[in-house]
Specification:
261 residues, 3% strand, mainly alpha, 9 helices
């Protein structure tokens, strides 16, 4: 016989699950984009996921005596959700870094657009790379892995069972910043090398033919050549996205281990 009872203690437990899921949805890539989807859709998504997870999450007794004690448990679950979502979201900023390097080389660094993911102004090429990464994330089904990581977190990190190991969190973040520059330069390396060679050639021509205005000529050459190289190397964005996704999985695993009891 199925038990449909739902008492006050079950409501408290459900709200804790909702807090972790809602904070995750608010900052995770794809789900946490500002305005897309609307906030009402995000809230409905968080409630629906929480309802589905309620019957799957292992129930553990909550130990608290006062309202302040329950508030601390809520705060802990919010932090767990934010850390999990942030571990996936910060990896997507690699594309913004690569795009800023490209635009700096081709002369488009003054053109900027609003990024709904990071909620900052980024260059036009960074926006292009960012949306390409999101498209690859939807096509490849990477968003399902992110939701799966959230689901598994309730098994690895029980409700009110998170222990924040500061050293592990700092080590994971430092590893990210180390690979952040390396991966970003790998993405923009073809454009960087070609524009660097063009700068060398223009420097030599400026000495050979000082009467030519190499500044005006160089801006047009670097822009045209840079756009051509971006067009030729766009086929590499799929492999770069796969590399970023593997690193995103490592970041999610690292942050999860850093919060396990």
């Amino acid at each position: 016989m199925i038990d449909y009872s739902f008492n006050y203690g079950d409501l408290e437990y459900f709200l804790l699950i909702l807090m972790r899921v809602a904070s995750f949805v608010a900052v995770a890539p794809v789900f946490g984009m500002q305005g897309v989807p609307p906030n009402r859709v995000k809230i409905a998504m968080a409630v629906l996921i929480s309802i589905l997870l309620y019957g799957m999450v292992p129930m553990v007794p909550l130990e608290y005596d006062t309202v302040l004690g329950y508030a601390l448990i809520v705060l802990r679950e919010v932090l767990v959700g934010i850390f999990l979502g942030l571990s996936a979201q910060i990896v997507t900023t690699i594309t913004a870094f690569a795009g800023s390097i490209v635009d700096m080389q081709v002369g488009l660094s003054m053109v900027s657009l609003f990024d709904p993911i990071s909620r900052n102004q980024i260059t036009i090429t960074g926006t292009l790379y960012q949306y390409t990464l999101l498209a690859m994330m939807l096509i490849s089904g990477m968003y399902r892995f992110i939701l799966g990581a959230l689901t598994d977190s309730f098994t690895l990190i029980p409700v009110n069972g998170a222990v924040f190991h500061t050293e592990s969190l700092v080590a994971t973040i430092m590893t990210y910043f180390t690979n952040y520059i390396v991966i970003g330069f790998r993405i923009c390396l073809p454009v960087f090398i070609v524009t660097f060679i063009i700068n060398i050639v223009l420097g030599v021509l400026a000495k050979v033919a000082p009467q030519m205005n190499m500044f005006a000529v160089g801006i047009q050459i670097k822009l045209l050549v840079g756009l051509a190289i971006m067009y030729v190397t766009c086929i590499m964005l799929g492999s770069a996205s796969n590399f970023i996704f593997r690193y995103m999985q490592e970041m999610l695993a690292g942050f999860t281990r850093a919060m396990m009891p």
